[in-house]
Design goal:
Helix content is about 50%, strand content about 10%. It has about 300 residues and is α/β, with parallel strands linked by helices. This is F-box domain-containing protein.
């Protein structure tokens, strides 16, 4: 601690800042590269435990200057484990967080077997996070996301507050699932807006995600340029997404949220670019083709 505070900050930033977001559950079938990237920082994270003074200086750098994404449809469970692991004192430092909206999770979670649950638990442990309780929130995805939002709301209301400045809610491009659960959407919107009421500077965005199923279909079947994961033509599915974008914009406008889109397919790290919806050329989505991601596909 003999170094000046300014120099110590430079050291912390060199050690603890990531050039791309931490994607802890991208929703890809093979995401080992993503987990390896996050796990690679476990080598330097013991710096946070050297002393209380160092932790007070370094923790805001790691948790506050990095972006943490939980984008896959089952990612709410991983996010709960992450919060349990780092504790309230470090949750307060998070500035940019991405969560999946729980609109389409019910049917998917109902089809999971025990092996899937155990696999998620093993992956959570591999990243050094606390393993979730048995069957925790697997049956009610909305309750799980609701619990995460309420944790942030509880911390935001006390004297210390939270640093959160941006909350992105991922909405898959298959919007017809989202629209069929209006009553659940209202509950989520209410809870998120309560959080915003306690944190006036918070930017909330709905992010329309044209996800990596297309890339996976190309890897497995070699025809992702023609069909989406559910067997429908990609052109038709993307046109449906375009048609529903206006409806989604109305939802965002009513809630005083932003509407953004993931522009580009997932790369091998689960990375994607997020841009404002108004900056996307209309023909881009209907002319979608699978291509290799650009060098900056892991960051906004």
């Amino acid at each position: 601690m003999e170094l000046p505070a300014e120099v110590r900050l430079i050291v912390y930033q060199y050690l603890l800042r990531s050039e791309r977001p931490f994607e802890l559950w991208p929703g890809l079938y093979e995401a080992d590269a993503t987990w390896s990237h996050y796990s690679s920082f476990r080598i330097v994270l013991p710096v946070l435990r050297l002393s209380k003074e160092i932790h007070s200086e370094a923790a805001p750098v790691f948790y506050g200057e990095n972006e943490f994404r939980f984008s896959g449809t089952s990612a709410y469970l991983v996010c709960k484990s992450f919060f349990m692991t780092i504790g309230d004192s470090n949750v307060r430092f998070l500035r940019k967080l991405t969560l999946p909206i729980p609109a389409i999770l019910g049917a998917e979670c109902a089809s999971w077997g025990v092996d899937d649950e155990r696999d998620i638990s093993r992956r959570i442990e591999r990243c050094g996070m606390i393993r979730p309780y048995h069957n925790i929130c697997f049956s009610d995805s909305l309750d799980a996301v609701d619990s995460i939002i309420k944790t942030l709301h509880r911390l935001a209301k006390d004297d210390v507050g939270i640093a959160l400045k941006e909350l992105q809610l991922i909405v898959p491009c298959t919007l017809y699932y989202f629209r069929d659960q209006e009553h659940e959407n209202e509950r989520l919107c209410r809870d998120v807006n309560c959080l915003k009421g306690s944190n006036k500077d918070l930017r909330i965005s709905l992010v329309l995600h044209h996800h990596g199923f297309f890339r996976k279909m190309k890897q497995v079947y070699g025809h992702a340029d023609d069909f989406a994961y559910d067997g429908t033509p990609i052109q038709d599915q993307c046109r449906s997404g375009r048609a529903d974008r206006a409806w989604l914009l109305n939802v965002a406008t009513d809630m005083d949220w932003s509407l953004r889109e993931c522009y580009g397919l997932d790369d091998e790290h689960g990375g994607y670019q997020v841009v404002d919806a108004g900056s996307i050329v209309d023909d881009t989505v209907t002319g979608w083709t699978v291509s290799e991601p650009g060098p900056d596909s892991g960051a906004d």
